[in-house]
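Researcher: Structure prediction, please.
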Amino acid sequence: MNSPINPSPPANLGTRRLPSLRMANFPDADPIVRQGLLARPRSAKAVDILLVNPPTPDGGLWIRTQHRVGRRTRENMVWPQVSLAQMAALLQPPYTVAIIDANAERLSWPEFARLLDEYQPKYYLTQVTAPTLENDMYGCFLAKARGAQTIAFGTHVTPIPRETMRPYPALDYILLGEPDLTIRDLLDHLENRIGQRLPPIQALFANHDPQYQPAIDATGRVDMGGIKGLVWRDGGEIVVNLIRPFIRSLDDLPHPQHELLPLQRYLQRYRMPLIKGPFTFIVTSRGCTAGCTYCIKHVSYQYTVRLRSPEKIVEEMWLLKQHGIHNIHMYADLFTVNRQQVMELCQLMIAQEMNIRWTCNSRVDYVDEEMLQTMAQAGCWLISWGIESGNEQILRHARKGAYPDKAERALRWARQAGIMNWGYFIIGLPGETEETVRQTIDFAKKLPLDIALFHVAAPYPGTPFFFEVVENNWFRPGTRWEQVDMDRGTVLDYPQMPAERLLYWQKRAFREWAFRPGPLFTYLKMLLSDRSTLRSALSVGLQHLSWSSTDSGLPVSS
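Model: Predicted structure follows.
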């Protein structure tokens, strides 16, 4: 079977050299160039490491559609880069750190390059996702050309590290899985600062992995192969080290350095539809116990669940209030994964009169009526639900574990508690037909939803869905990673539902749901709330209410 996505170069490509150059015995130019660049006079803004969310291809003028992979979504929800703020907190001290969120600040690539010249980073760290692979690698190229060592993490590089590094020589390192401790461990080894670790950092390394040892050989040199969770280049070979164990207690992590994100300078840079004013994320847990085959979150955290204590979460809320943040999204793979944590958190917020408006996500089978009432009393005003389909067999095949009857009950409970419902649906999971899409549309219309969005299924690398698509040859010919996106297109081509029909039904589903009095009133409120949500509503309209040249051209069927 032909490789379905962007076939990788031959395995020996990284070591191939011209015979004449090998005979000339020329030295490797890379360290010489890097040393020369780093020897330049350091500017006042120069930092040890730059943590980056790079520009979109158009500099942020239009939405970069990335649902569930952590940057922007088609409804113009700009995701706060709290993962970068969390890693920054682990790196300071002893390292000087800066964060560039070019997406939030709508930086163009030339503007971003000028910032690289100002910061002169020794190390450059960026998240990499499937829909943004080449875009993210361009940022690495710019940084490496300025002498930085480049580092990537994220849900794309973790399942396919060799396949990512091989065609992109500008990428020096990959952090597999949970990146927080690996980036600190890597820099401490490269900068010879292991002996300078403060007691809290020493304890964090010792507690998370009882077998942890610094990767130093008998001669005192760094043994790169001993740094867990690292992928690196040994000459022409790409080496994948042992995975690093997960951090056992999230409470041992310092609070993210939110102040390094553009909160104060641009209060409207992070935004969410129907929210008036700035907002940000608080991470309440990592991992999810559910077994959905399409979920990208399992790539990083598998099926483990680690919780932060309610006390730590509330402590972070008070810190954010000092920065003028009164709107929070409780960011988790599944916020309601542990009932006791949620109830204790809500009771603590009520007792301390937190007065925070917050949103979260949930599964329809992980809530009950009492929990939702308590959440509403604590300030929860909107829940996003992964409903996915109105057909039970499709949900069973995807191992969703939550079926239409539970969805109706949970959303009714939420509505009665005074919480708005935001429903996400997926068109194109295995087994989808035009009849099952029709069931999903009709089901969505029955539910007490304030907002509904319909995405085309995306087989992200490392998920069981991805391997099912490969096995059955459901990828469209000539597919590239950048097309693994649930909004702008599709990589899927089922025999019974070709790509054009999937996209047609995605658009039709949204139009049928939205062109009704209730949803239209909600979107009108989005239009009138403020400028950012005006832009949000217009973006939704442009992408989903208008026919484009990419539509199938097929007549609308009943």
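Model: The two ends are 38 Å apart (CA to CA).
Researcher: Thanks, that helps.
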